[in-house]
Amino acid sequence: MQTKKLVVLGLGARGKIYATYAKTYPEKFDLVAIIENDPDRIEIAKNTYPTAQVFSDYKDFLKAGISADIVAVATQDKDHKEHSIAFMEKGYDLLLEKPIANNKQDCIDIYNASKKYGRKVIICHVLRYTPFYSTVKRVIDSGKLGEVITIHASENVGYYHQAHSFVRGPWQNSKESSPMILAKCCHDMDIIRYLMGEECKKVSSFGDLFYFNSEHAPKNSAEYCSDCKVEDCVFKAQKIYLEQGRDFSSYFTTKELTDENVLQDLKHTQYDKCVYKSNNDVVDHQVTIMQFEKGKTATHTMTAFSKEIYRDLKIHGTKAELVGVIEENWIEIRPYGKEVERIEIDVSKANVGGHMGGDFYMMDGIYKDLNGEKADGVTYLDVSIESHLMSFGAEESRLDGGRPVDIKK
Ligand SMILES: NC(=O)c1ccc[n+]([C@@H]2O[C@H](COP(=O)([O-])OP(=O)(O)OC[C@H]3O[C@@H](n4cnc5c(N)ncnc54)[C@H](O)[C@@H]3O)[C@@H](O)[C@H]2O)c1
Fold it and tell me: Please, what is the average pLDDT of the chain?
């Protein structure tokens, strides 16, 4: 297979994974350019990937006429439309971060542009590529479960991850970024659609921002955690960013993540804000009910309120049920009237990225796809847009008290 030329637009948390993959596997991807507009990250780009050309403005890159097999668009949700259309117009194929865009019309505009310019767009639905969900899909396709009738999936965001990303961080406000069901759960909508193997016809959804608001602020709590005297607050920023959430600190510092640097650069940023006094409006719990073509059903529960970050899955078929937890790397197939079969999932080969091997296997799959080989899980915008329409439908339903919404492509 041939080495493919990769360009990364946005060297943030996601862009770094694609660049690191190319650096680790230079026989697969040649990182020809990085486009980044933050001065500190430009320096990181130059020092860490010295063979890549670095641009601070994507328009300069487009004028330079550099050839590439794929451009990873890893800027923020609200910028995806401008960036992806500009690159497609110039003839580049894309690896576009999810969500496709933060509103339905922009998603449709990107989809139409991909048709107009005849470009291939792969959406980073990383869960599809995880050994866990790939195994689940193979089990379904083998017929062991019989016909799949019901799927139940839950996404337990983790109290500290909710506080970082969806209360204080980039996805805190649906008007400025995306609603939760899109930002966080479009992966789950995609997986449910993928595993069900049928189009979703109708969704209904309920949910709310219950807890992370001024009503629940402790007495005498300050605006910023660094000024706050409340004892025993589990959401105290200094505690989160020095403990489980240390890696999240890259959202407010480009320095090495020592205790001293983290505490210094955190002070009085949005990440230091009291979780009960932030500019957040996205839900902290949401339940979505889905109906598929032949009347099959699925439910999805998203909740902020979990100790750990994990997703669990139950699939009920006519011959057996399947149960599993991705973060624990196990699946059980429980056939009716027969012995339980337990599968342990091996993710040890995935040495770049996260998502339980999803980032690693996605890049591997894209490499194969670009070389014309069959790659499990790789799908294009035509399919990905369906799961986004499910998310938009769910949000429309939630805002209208759970009214069922038809999903039309
Ligand atoms: N696939 C997944 O599972 C997954 C997980 C998290 C985030 N995401 C998505 O990935 C995207 C990026 O998220 P992130 O967490 O990496 O964000 P980030 O803020 O860490 O990274 C974005 C980067 O883009 C740069 N940038 C912004 N505008 C630019 C411009 N005009 N030109 C050049 N550079 C520019 C920023 O300086 C930053 O370095 C978002 O759409 C997000 O929703 C996907």
Answer: 96
Q: How far is the CA of 401 from the centre of ligand 1 (A)?
A: 32
> In this structure, are strands 121-123 and 94-96 parallel, antiparallel, or unpaired?
parallel
**368 CA to centre of ligand 1 in angstroms:** 25
Lining residues, ligand 1, CB within 6 Å: 9-15, 35-38, 41, 58, 74-77, 79, 97-98, 124, 126, 170, 355
For residue 109 the two structure tokens come to 């505009």
Cα angle 358-58-78, degrees, rounded to a multiple of 5 = 60
Q: Is 337 left (phi over 0), alpha (psi -120 to 50) or beta?
A: left
Q: Would strands 53-55 and 29-35 be described as parallel, antiparallel, or unpaired?
A: parallel
Domains and CATH numbers, the chain: 4-123 (3.40.50.720), 127-212+280-406 (3.30.360.10), 214-272 (no CATH)
Q: Where are the beta strands (DSSP E) in 115-215?
A: 121-123, 148-156, 200-208
| Contact predicate 172/166, CB 8 Å | yes
Tokens coding 1:
């297979």
pTM: 0.90
pLDDT given at position 214: 97
pLDDT tens digits along 75-133: 999 999 999 999 999 999 999 999 999 999 999 999 999 999 999 999 999 999 999 99
Whole-number Å distance between alpha carbons of 212 and 304: 10
* Helix (H), strand (E) counts: the chain: 13, 15
pLDDT tens readout for residues 47-65: 999 999 999 999 999 999 9
- Cα 319 to ligand 1 centroid, rounded to whole Å: 43
For residue 9, how far is its CA from the centre of ligand 1 (angstroms)? 9
Q: Which of 8, 11, 14 most suits a substitution to test ligand 1, by most atoms within 8 Å of the C-beta?
A: 14
Residue 383 pLDDT: 86
E strand map for 242-293: 285-292
Residue owning tokens 């920023």:
237
For residue 409, is pLDDT > 80?
no
Structure tokens at 309: 């970050």
In this prediction, residue 336 carries a pLDDT of 98
pLDDT of residue 376: 83
Q: Which atom of ligand 1 is nearest to the CA of 11?
A: 39
Angle of helix 39-48 relative to helix 13-24, nearest 10 degrees, comes to 10
CA of 98 to the centre of ligand 1 (A): 10
Residue 239 exposed, middle or buried by CB count within 10 Å (0-12, 13-18, 19+): middle
